[in-house]
């Protein structure tokens, strides 16, 4: 029954992707827009997007569908994923690809490469991750540049309202710590959080939530979630909005 349900979900997603020209373009490059984020993203009015952990462009493609003229700054350190992203958006002058990771300091760091590229992380992959998602074990290590977000972009690069999306496999808090100078200019933050530790040293959901609330953001939406084999939610995409008086 589980396999049948999974097949039906994939088939339904494919039908939805084929329905829109922007998504069909992505499929030509093997990129399926992240429709799981559609309910929480389509109501936002944004003029600029920072895509931290862009992978091959799944989220950027979704945002381009909703916001035709938005400026998108995408960050992806893994070479093969960045190459696909670059080809997909080669004709889009409002999309800027930065081929490095984001963190709290400008350094060269080890990227722990997963068998599934989108599970790669600057943190070592734990056994909990490979149990939760078989086929995501580490297959190599690659040295990549890491930069602070507020060293790369300024408020002048980000027409408002602005959105920062973070999906970096355990490094979410480091990205936020490297964006302190930009936070006053970011209206929304959409971040993947975990309730279980899948990467060694990974901050859990409560730490990310506390960090953002202390800086004038409130939780205003929940996007996609992931469950373990017992049906417990172990990951979620959370939308935070900056309070008006902050």
Automatic annotation (TrEMBL):
Instruction: Report what the protein is called.
Output: Methyltransferase FkbM domain-containing protein
Matching entries from SUPFAM superfamilies are given as: S-adenosyl-L-methionine-dependent methyltransferases
Task: Tell me a Gene Ontology molecular-function term this record carries.
Answer: O-methyltransferase activity
Q: What positions does the domain Methyltransferase FkbM occupy?
A: 51-217
The source's superkingdom equals Bacteria
- Gene3D superfamilies from the UniProt entry: Vaccinia Virus protein VP39 (3.40.50.150)
* InterPro entries documented for this protein: FkbM_Methyltransferase, FkbM_mtfrase, SAM-dependent_MTases_sf
